[in-house]
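[job 4417] fold queue: 2 targets
>>> target A
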Amino acid sequence: MAAILTNDNIAPAVFRMVVVAPEVARSRRAGQFVIVRPGPGGERIPLTIADADPERGTITLIYQVVGKTTAVMSLMDPGAEIADVAGPLGQPTHVERFGRVACVGGGIGIAPLYPIAQAMKAAGNDVTAVLGARTRDLLILEPEMRAVVDRVVVVTDDGSYGAKGFVTDALRGLIDSGERPDLVVAIGPTIMMKMVSLLTKEAGVRTLVSLNTIMVDGTGMCGGCRVTVGGQVKFVCVDGPEFDGHQVDFDEMMKRLRTYRRQEAESYEAFRTRHRCRLMERNAEARG
């Protein structure tokens, strides 16, 4: 059991939960994740460790309410306990002094990108964070990211904050300027990572992508996170979650992501129907 210290609504349908997990906090490295089961008999889901405090023995999990299990988590109050937090799991990010590193995050992907940006900066790299969101209110962790990198570039699809456009527009600007990165790390929606990888492949810039959104079981046993990388079958939870973006078959991955969409939608809708008032109340907190 892992006690919940805080569970704050930081953007519409996005929550930041701090839980007590001392062994995970001491041993986790950037890029790794945990498997969380909110309650007995519930579903197990993978969540990237967004931050950790070894002295307090806590880890920070940032999650978006997209289905029943994350909706259950959003209704858990401080003092409650998560049934299981297993980890750290997955291969940690390979961190060294590359030179210039561009960390590109879209939407909720900014959360797993944050500890990687921290680690890259600590290794002596010049780090630029490119943060993208559909609208200003969906942008997360901007102040936290500004505190750990050299510069931050913000773009929004609708132009409500930062520059109007996509992360690929901002990244192209870096590549074409005197700040051309030696490495790009991209995390976000699958289509965003695909477009970033196409851009960087054309420009000859090494690129890592994190495919954590496709993970299910987190142990390699279920096979749900199969992806093709460089013509070979890989399991994201044990071989990744990070891979060479120029080698990933993103079209295959997007098809696999749709496998259980109907069942997930039905489960979520049934839960929302029973708890609609409380869910609306929690989401209203982020809007003030």
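>>> target B
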Amino acid sequence: MADLWTLERAAMAEGHCLICGCDEAGAGPLAGPVYAAAVILPQGLELPYLNDSKQVTPRRRDRLFDEIQERALAWAVASVSAREIDDIDILNARMLAMQRAMDALDPQPDYALIDGNRDHGSRVALTTPHETVVKGDSRSASIAAASILAKVSRDRYMEEMAEKYPQYAFDRHKGYGTRLHYEMLDKHGPSPIHRRSFLKKWEAARRG
């Protein structure tokens, strides 16, 4: 398995002391918020099965979720609502969620490793000193930990929404555009947590 601490060690060698990883979850779904998490781990911490959240089984994600919160020096989770996504677009919303998560850390990091290759949208830019890391959730322990917290937090929110709006089966598809989800949309129309800006093609198709 790849060394997940190479990027953190390189940042420390440049003089940074508190390095966080930051990642988001839920950019693509038709419904629900986009979530982000930021995590500062003790340097060199080993967590079995820590990896990109998409590569970890749900049971192991739940276990890691608890372990990361217990062992991190600091962690925070933040979200941007469907309404905010409609107002500012998903790229700006992703940046806003990540900055909200980093701003909530105590102590504050002096450097951040950001998953992906974007650090700003048209209206929101990351302000914490940082570098972007393509496929960072499989290259950095800190980003991998953030990906777990963001993914599990968002999945649990969507499971709560499944209880509030049972007709949409949010617990099954988590808001993603599956065939089942579109069938429920055709039957019931959008819920209050749907991203209307993501439904334009669906609405146009319904109008014929």
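[job 4417] complete. Note on B: The helical segments are 6-13, 58-71, 82-88, 90-103, 141-164, 170-173, 179-188, 200-207.
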